[in-house]
Amino acid sequence: MVLTKEDLEKKLKLTKEEEAWFSSPSSLPLTISDYYFSLIEDDANDPIRREVVPSILECNDDASIDPLAEVDHSVTPRLIHRYTHRAALLTTDRCFTYCRHCFRRRFTGLNSGAISTQDIDKASNYLKDHKEIKELLLTGGDLFTLPISRLDYLFNSLKSSRPDMILRLCTRAVVTFPEIFTQQLMDVIKKYSYGAPFLLLTHYNHPRELTKESIEAVNKFLSLGIPAFNQTVLLKGVNDNPDTLEELCNSLLYNRIKPYYLFQGDLVTGTTHLRVDIKDGLALEKELRKRLSGLAMPQYTLDLPEGGGKIILTENHFISEDDNFYYFSTPEGDKRRYPKK
Ligand SMILES: *Cc1c(COP(=O)(O)O)cnc(C)c1O
Ligand code: SF4
After folding, report:
1. CA-to-CA dists, residue 234 to 32, 47, 320, angstroms
2. What is the pLDDT of residues 262-282, one digit of tens each?
3. Which positions are annotated as binding [4Fe-4S] cluster (predicted)?
């Protein structure tokens, strides 16, 4: 594992900004798995490197620590109920590799640790009383950093109180630590693959992350009948160009992972240097729509500040209406009308 400056320097010649982080580090620790570190090339502009090697640029911005107001929406110590029909459970603050763009810096890597049995029980009781919740996101941190026995307890508790509720397994471990998906771990997932399904939610940001090892890990879920969806974060210097995103989305779909969201960066402390302007994001979205099939196309999504919720960003095709017609622009810029009923 890469945890120190010396570990990084075994392979990389650090830039001034990277070097400077170590004299005043931000709260999100440096941790890179050996596997993910092996994907990095010794080039200051390497996109994989930008995702995980810290830089002093993280330390001089004053964005919010909790822009999605998750703390305000916490209903038990680890359960966030922001949307009526789905909720998110923070199973641990640990990850195998910390992403410098992490949107949950208020929590991730800060030593609150694995969810306790009491907090699992509290969440289960709440979910039992709130049947309107149809889907639960198991997130963090990364739930697969939990010991297998704790995962077993968690799944057992949730399945007992809500066998009808879909469980989303939100993990970056298939990208950063594929070797964790041992037969023993997959057996626990298989054991609870009854009733409402598990869904796998991955977090690939760059086509170079779709390695043989990583695809094999995803295939273990697919072979249990668990479908896979991907959430990408739009990141400056990592994937903010149409060629990279086109290749990423096509490879995801080819590997049976549906591109679900392309997230605009949240206004989180320490991530300003990785954010893309929304106008540039919209131009990318428009270009991608020309290049990708409907299935390969993710939804460009903004989680509005101050807990405003998620909205989809896309080019507006509606122009106007009169007494008899609605008017639209075609993707090529022509005009069409459609009658009112
Ligand atoms: C994004 C999010 C969800 C899930 O939203 P979907 O649009 O259904 O993917 C649930 N809870 C919280 C707190 C979220 O931020
Ligand atoms: S894997 Fe997810 S929770 Fe962990 S550091 Fe990355 S973005 Fe944050």
Report:
1. 20, 12, 31
2. 999 999 999 999 999 999 999
3. 95, 99, 102
